[in-house]
Specification:
Shape: globular
Number of helices: 5
Radius of gyration: 26 Å
Distance between the termini: 47 Å
Helix content: under 10%
Structural class: mainly beta
Largest sheet: 22 strands, antiparallel, barrel
Length: 723
Amino acid sequence: MLRGVSYIAIIGALAGVPIAATAQEADGDEIVVTANRRSEAVQDVAASVTAISEQQLQARGADSFEGFARSVPGLTMNQAVKNRAIFNIRGIATDVISGNTQDPVSVYVNDTPITDTFAAVAQPDLRLFDVNRVEVLRGPQGTLFGSGSLGGTVRIITNKPNAAAFEAAGRVDFGTTKGGAFRQRYDAMVNVPLITDRLALRVVGYYRDEEGWVENIRLGTRNDTVDWGGRVALQWTPADDLTVRAEVFHQDSDPRDGDSWNPALGKFKRDSAIPEPRPNRITNYNLAVDYDMAGFATLNWSSTYQESKSGSFRDIGPLLGPGTPHFIGRLSPWNARFLVQELRLVSNGSSPFQWVAGAFFIDRKTGIPDYRVTAPGLDALFGGALGSDLFFDTDITTKSTEIAGYFDGNYEIASGLTVRGGMRIFRTTADYIEQERTSLNLATLQYDVTPAFSNRSKGTNTTWRAGLSYEPDQDLLFFANVSKGFRIGQVNSNRGPSMVDPSDYVIREGYDPDSTINYELGAKTSWLQGALTLNLTGFYIDWKNIQIEGTRRSDFAAFTANGGRASVKGVEFEMNARPGRGVHLYTAVTIQDGKIDSIPADFTVPAAAGDRLPGLARWKLAGGAEYRWDIGSSEAHVRIDGQFTDGSPNAFRDAGRKPGFAMNDAYASLNAAIGIDRGWGSIALYGENLTGEDAIILRIPNVPAPFVTLRPRTFGVRLTVRH
């Protein structure tokens, strides 16, 4: 269980104990965040916020979500298949793979949420080149960031065009993984001032070709992937108080097969009748306007249109027994489009009362025109009586809207003593529309046809937050917060009473939002003129009205409903130290526990009181060290980064009755790099997963290839040039 802890503990002992919540850069510059919708140094934010700067991302070789998630306190990430990450903040989750409910953590690019609400098939694994910072807001964020912030929010903030100077950068990364898998990564950026200090264009492009390490022995495929994408931004400042920015980003990710493997076939081997990738193509268009009304407020308007195309492919296995045809599920294409509008005013005067007021609207629509399950050879198995190998076929459309108004403010009632509060009022609608459904009745060997139907859910609710902070001087900040987060209520694909027992539970057309209330006490401290920062937060979360998968007892109909309650408690500790010239040490520690407190009595759920929440690791440790020294006109550096994550449940245990329940292994990873920096750029040799950790980081319930592991030991070289 504790495999790999020893070397992490050594790092932690050296570092003192923050990998990701680093409040300052090695050169002492503070990271500025917009977690409260205004620019603040991260150490001045009276809440649990982790900020990872562009320089830190580059130094750690972080290229995607996986590159930072394991180093952030309170944050874990499970990814059963590429392009479908499930973030978990402070243990708030009912699943480690995708379900029919909205994810418990919202993911933003700048001011736009990018994840679908209903049974999201994809979570784009965005590449992190030319990213200004990553912000992780721990705890519910329902007031300022709306739905999906049940546990917290992850924000990717891109670099903006710079009209003051020409900039250019490029990066080439070649690596090889144990077993021979070769990867190549290419990045480029150019920033051109078109009118000095007024108009600038920034263009970013990248390409990835990464060979995989998991082999499909039936098809000869591997989990290779090719990703490409980029970003174009044009920023115009016609006057000192007005900025207009148009930005578009695109990413096309095309994995060839799945990442999971079956230990019965051998290490890193899988066997499926079809490849099981999760391709994703996303394009996001944004227009933003910032107008500074000096002494009063800054007006921010953001308008976004996003479209994506994904697909899910799965070998479900021989459902009729060994030797019978494999059932093949195809949900492709899975089309989604979002329209997002947000308008807010952020006070900018010198008054002790500072505030944010805004309005928000999002309209989402997804379409699955060909949701089909077939079983090649099924008709032959039944002697040609079916006339087809089709098992199930339908066409599904889902829609959801959210309209909200919010106000948040803080008032300094005495020197350094500030009271904070805010509220968001929201109204949501959700629709599930299914066209004619065709399904094979195995009892009659006839195809049953269900006419088109639609279900709708709607509701109005509020979230809020309140807090008190005390800052006796610029190096000490103490805070106490209470905040509420929510997921939108949505709809079921069936409804009504049981035909077997009309007195049994009646499935509702829709289900309600669930909510979390987070209580936290924290301290952010800075010592030795900023050379040492120590941050500590304790929290307790009460999760009510949980959206959970249920089964009706009389006819075994499946649905989603609200029921039960859970709680999570924990402590997060971060430290960042620069004890001497060129030395940078950091660590983050998370200790937490969470369980189901009660379950509904009128239908069956896959959980029991006392069950630990899926994906909740009771403790995490991340730490590392970097040393830089001069060599002539160059600067050399060496660094080491390590993380440890404790074991976690892959599902609810249901008091030992849950099929497919298992514990994901505790695991550790160790990365290192050594390189030379000069004015024109840098070159570094690096190693990832140096100990060859092959623990099972995710056991996927009820699938033929259930194991997910880290990428094996990888060595590479990274060349960066900049101007």
